[in-house]
Amino acid sequence: MGARVNGNARQRLGACRLLACVAVTIVSFVGVWATPAAVCAAETETETEEEAEVQFDPFEGMDADGRIPKVEKANLVDRPERWRYLPESRIPKGNLLDRFLVSSIVFPIFSFSSDVGASFGAGIADIDFRKQRRREFLGVFASYSTEGQQSYSVSWRRWLKHEEVPSGGVLQEERSFVRVAGGYRNTLTRRFFGIGPATREREESSYTDETFWFDAGAASSLPAPFDDFVASISLRGETHWLSGGKASNTPNTEDAFPGLFSDADQTTLGWLNAGFAWDTRDSVRNPYSGSAIGASVQAALLQADRTVGAIYTIYADKVFPMPPLFHGGGDANEENPPTDSLGVHFRTLLSSGDLPFFNRPTLGGSRIARGYIAGRWRDDALWAAAAEYRFWLIPRGFTVWKNIRVERLGAAIFYEAGGVAKDGIALFDSGVIHSYGFGGRATIERAVLFRLDLGFSDEGMNFAAGFGLSF
Fold it and tell me: Can you give the pLDDT at residue 54?
């Protein structure tokens, strides 16, 4: 037992050293971009008291029913269809609560299960952080359960292409940004079913995953005439300590899969990630039309045991605008008209080298194969295909109270298929898993979408919730 404690101490020290290096890189990265932002903030503070006291108009640049008239973008930017217009009514002044459900979101987190007890927490999302005219986002999330499950995270993003509209409001291009994030999680009920396409539901095991992580990255569209292409790069550091899980009536992963568990325990990884894509979609976060084809590599070049590993991804998306079902659609002079759409997605992942079991390609959870629990299927290769029909039920939304407005409410139905195997060739012989379901969608503006999904499979039902579309 004494040797185990000393081993843990050495591993934690090594992990802290690696994460400290990543943290220094992140701080330096943020500093480069924070300096000009600080100058802007200082200029904002010089705003006169008379300007600050001007009463906020919740419909400036917007009709009373929520319709946003188009502005002339062609004189301000190239490729105007790529730029999203935000009227002055979406850029209110004031503190976090003054801007609630316009440019800020504050919400409680509460849940209960017999495995982790009662969980309490809160989330804050400020999409006009530091009052930078919608250039910056900050999200802070924290939760704690009576049994010790914990999650704390911070995420910051700054968009790099941003233009003021002379008549009021701003234009923003979604594809170019820098970001920094980090956090700590102690998750008591991670699931692992083994590796390969033949794993069975009754082989489920449980483990606790305690992890620290840091992440910094950037993405940018290329200059014209190559502005259909987007390049991205990021650095990530993470460290994991595994122990027995808390899932009821489920064996511990350490007992069920001792070799895989031992190899993955006390793991520290430093990742270099890079991607390149051709992307013609009219929005990255909530597209109504367009295509995207891309590839990326996630390389774990630094590991505590001095091994290396990588995950290679190829994906494709196509979004088709569809005739409206429950509304009349928008008009040619409207920004972000209500548009029903059909999204189609395909991806394939291959891994190589040495990676812990929890970093191998996986199906199940809130993104793909939503009818299965997270981590249900794992191996060194996978493929997945999905189709999702998204339609709006309340296209113009409604005012909740004063300045608080829901832009629109909708729903979606989806079908997904996929499989895992030991390598790319074996994918052609592996079995196919199926998942289908339906869900709800709500937006307070086009890029801020909340999703609730109920997925079904031959292993039952799975509930998933999150920000943004699944693909």
Answer: 52
On the question of pLDDT at 369 being above 90, the answer is yes
pLDDT digits (tens, 9 = 90+) for 97-128: 888 888 998 889 888 888 888 999 999 999 99
Q: Give per-residue pLDDT as tens, 172-231.
A: 999 999 999 999 999 999 999 999 999 999 999 999 999 999 999 999 999 989 999 999
CATH fold group of domain 2-31+172-467: Porin (2.40.160)
- Mean pLDDT to the nearest integer, 349-375: 96
Domain ranges of the chain: 2-31+172-467
Label each residue of the chain as H, E or C: CHHHHHHHHHHHHHHHHHHHHHHHHHHHHHHHHHHHHHHHHHHHHCCCHHHHCCCCCCCCCCCCCCCEECCCCCCCCCCHHHEEEECHHHCCCCCCCCCECCCEEEEEEEEEECCCEEEEEEEEEECCHHHCCCCEEEEEEEEEECCCCEEEEEEEEEECCEEECCCCCEEEECCCEEEEEEEEEEEEEEEECCCCCCCCHHHCEEEEEEEEEEEEEEEEECCCCCCCEEEEEEEEEEEEEEEECCCCCCCEHHHHCHHHHHHHCCEEEEEEEEEEEEECCCCCCCCCCEEEEEEEEEEEEEECCCCCEEEEEEEEEEEEEECCCCCCCCCCCEECCCCEEEEEEEEEEEEEECCCHHHCCEECCCCCCCCCCCCCEECCEEEEEEEEEEEEEECCCEEEECCEEECEEEEEEEEEEEEEECCCHHHHHCCCEEEEEEEEEEEEECCEEEEEEEEEECCEEEEEEEECCCC
pLDDT band at 330 (very low <50, low <70, confident <90, very high): confident
pLDDT at 173: 94
